[in-house]
Known about the structure:
Blueprint: H1 3-30, E1 52-54, H2 57-61, E2 70-75, H3 78-83, E3 89-94, E4 100-102, E5 108-110, E6 115-118, E7 122-127, E8 131-137, E9 160-166, E10 172-174, H4 177-184, H5 189-196, H6 205-215
Amino acid sequence: xxxxxxxxxxxxxxxxxxxxxxxxxxxxxxxxxxxxxxxxxxxxxxxxxxxxxxxxxxxxxxxxxxxxxxxxxxxxxxxxxxxxxxxxxxxxxxxxxxxxxxxxxxxxxxxxxxxxxxxxxxxxxxxxxxxxxxxxxxxxxxxxxxxxxxxxxxxxxxxxxxxxxxxxxxxxxxxxxxxxxxxxxxxxxxxxxxxxxxxxxxxxxxxxxxxxxxxxxxxx
Length: 220
């Protein structure tokens, strides 16, 4: 084939390949930043939390609770948590007419000073950053001794468990060594290397979340 014909066709083919490679990966990069009206709305950029109920994760991201009123958190007894498999507390709201109702479908709420996420009850966000940190509380039943049974390990599960979620995607992870190594820290190669060589990393998992947040800023 003469070069005059071959060269334009080859350039066209190359441009087509580049176009496919670029735009086939574009949606994955854009998912985290879609639907924000401006960076100023992003809750990461403010410490002035608006008081109210977040019906969705998006409302939390935008610091824009859609339901307002007098917020009441009611605790449940330990017995109810164990035998009824109930959350340790529940959220009620009192409207302007004085009517109180229990809320069922919501993501969390803010009292104007602190943000609480709904996960086995309501839990305070201990840190708001690229990865937001919180702790859930679980009431575990006390094992009943059975002298006729052979037991190996009847230790109840821990009463507290740390969790984190990505402030851009909402993806929630248990705070474990595996999740830090596999999903969170690979975004910061230098911090991941420190983590992998840290003999005390099991006791420093919360610190690594803090360090990651200090070193990395979620970008809209």
